[in-house]
User: Fold this.
Amino acid sequence: MINATQIRRGMLIKMDDEPYIVLKISHITPGKGRAFVQCVLRGLQTGLSKDVRFRSNDRVEETEIEAIEMEYIYNADNLYYFMDLQSYEQIPLDADLIAEATKFLQPNTKVKVEFYEGKPFGVILPKYVILKVIETQAYIKEATAQAQSKPAQLEGGHTCQVPPFVGVGDMIKINTETGEYLERT
Assistant:
């Protein structure tokens, strides 16, 4: 059992003897009254989403999951295929299940696929990925002493702010948890 304030996006929790994956979470602290945690959950068995509000001192049961290291291979028809590195078995995952992770997946990326009772439901990305800049503004030196940043679109569809010296074709390191630029490689 964990406190409701410890719930994180992508976590699997159990309510009313059913497993739910946490899609969105926000900690709300109103000026008047007690703090609470607002979650959007999707039932693994039903596939239906619902909004749930927990008080900050509520206890929630976290379910046991199995994480198996796999390699992302390709996607087709809204399905993302992963290969087990031990048995070479391929497992398809629906794009809705892995949501934001699709922006960071490149062929041959090693990830951990999460299973609940033998059924895949999500992926754990590596902490950092290296992606190619596909589109960004040209560097124009301005007469300011402050650091500037500009938006850049990366392969996979992710957009983030980068320093002005980063150009099209550059390979950059991205934090998969925050989606922020770390360094040019």
Observations:
- The chain has three domains: 2-62, 66-124, 128-184.
- The chain is about 0% helix and 55% strand.
